[in-house]
């Protein structure tokens, strides 16, 4: 990502269709918030704009899971990565692009970061995303009760994992 991508993130993260599943419709982003969350933070996440057919359509980030998070999720060892993503251009929803995105990132993490597992924690109610992730080979591990604050309510999430073949 670079500074030119700020306006894309503002556009996507102020769209109520996107926010219904990512961040919440009560949590729209403006330029200041995008800068604070995506550019001015010092987290160990690799943040990328997703392009499809040379058009920017979404966002993905990946990060190595720290020891405390591993323990909280029930993992005792391994090189485990987490990913988060969204397609911000909604006309690309339900076209297989999300499946291509997720499977490509998982392959990258196995090849280049030597990941043993890749995990995510989507909300239980996000059925379209869960179908996508299952098509990519993710398996449901366990429910994480009241795991994510979304639109003023703590929501249950699934811990899902993809294990290297």
What is the element layout, followed by pairings?
Elements: H1 6-12, H2 16-19, H3 31-39, E1 46-52, E2 55-64, H4 67-73, E3 80-87, H5 97-112, E4 117-120, H6 127-135, E5 139-150, E6 153-163
Helix pairs in contact: 1-3, 5-6
Describe this structure in a few short sentences.
This protein is of the alpha+beta class. It has helices at residues 6-12, 16-19, 31-39, 67-73, 97-112, 127-135, and strands spanning 46-52, 55-64, 80-87, 117-120, 139-150, 153-163. It has one domain (3-163): Gcn5-related N-acetyltransferase (GNAT) (Aminopeptidase, 3-Layer(aba) Sandwich), CATH 3.40.630.
Report what the structure shows.
Residues 8-161 form the N-acetyltransferase domain. Keywords: Antibiotic resistance, Transferase. This is GNAT family N-acetyltransferase. GO terms for molecular function: N-acyltransferase activity. It is a single chain. By secondary structure, the chain is an alpha+beta fold. It has one domain (3-163): Gcn5-related N-acetyltransferase (GNAT) (Aminopeptidase). The chain contains six helices and six strands; from the N terminus they run H-H-H-E-E-H-E-H-E-H-E-E. The chain has a six-stranded mixed β-sheet with strand order 1-2-3-4-6-5, with helices on both faces. It is globular, with a radius of gyration of 15 Å. The two termini are 30 Å apart.
């Amino acid at each position: 990502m670079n500074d030119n991508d700020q306006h894309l993130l503002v556009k996507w993260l102020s769209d109520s269709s996107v926010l219904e599943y990512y961040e919440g419709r009560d949590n729209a982003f403006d330029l200041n918030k995008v800068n604070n969350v995506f550019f001015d933070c010092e987290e160990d996440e690799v943040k990328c704009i997703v392009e499809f057919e040379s058009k920017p359509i979404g966002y993905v980030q990946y990060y190595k899971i720290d020891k405390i998070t591993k323990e909280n999720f029930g993992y005792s060892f391994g090189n485990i990565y987490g990913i988060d993503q969204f397609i911000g251009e909604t006309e690309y929803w339900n076209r297989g692009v999300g499946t291509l995105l997720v499977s490509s990132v998982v392959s990258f993490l196995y090849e280049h970061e030597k990941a043993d597992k890749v995990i995510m924690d989507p909300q239980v109610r996000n059925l379209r995303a869960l179908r996508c992730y299952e098509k990519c080979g993710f398996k449901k591990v366990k429910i994480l009760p009241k795991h994510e604050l979304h639109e003023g309510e703590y929501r249950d999430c699934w811990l899902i994992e993809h294990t290297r073949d």
